[in-house]
Amino acid sequence: xxxxxxxxxxxxxxxxxxxxxxxxxxxxxxxxxxxxxxxxxxxxxxxxxxxxxxxxxxxxxxxxxxxxxxxxxxxxxxxxxxxxxxxxxxxxxxxxxxxxxxxxxxxxxxxxxxxxxxxxxxxxxxxxxxxxxxxxxxxxxxxx
Length: 144
Description:
Layout: H1 3-16, H2 19-23, E1 31-34, E2 39-42, H3 48-57, E3 62-71, E4 74-84, E5 89-91, E6 94-96, E7 102-114, E8 117-125, H4 127-134
Parallel strand pairs: 1-8
Antiparallel strand pairs: 1-2, 3-4, 4-7, 5-6, 7-8
């Protein structure tokens, strides 16, 4: 299986809420960086814990990668995530209680794999747009 196929399998597991499959991508050397939150997870649960938290906030997550490109052991995935906010979300903007609102946010994830394990993942997503969809009153007011 190619690195790109492993990442396709990861997103299929995310969309199915299959935490066991997501957890199997982790190993002792794994690191996951949520860039917008400046949050780094390390170790065997580094891959599953951020996804488990996200699925707690957005249980009907549908990650729709429109580009998955491999370069050796590195894979870049770009896409759009669509979901409904159902769980309390401790975000950099504060605690966001469930709103029931639909979100659509772009992401770009950069993975480095070793076989079927994710050694490093840097996850970039548009938190500003996400916040505007969940709690527009928290966005700074811009003068016209």
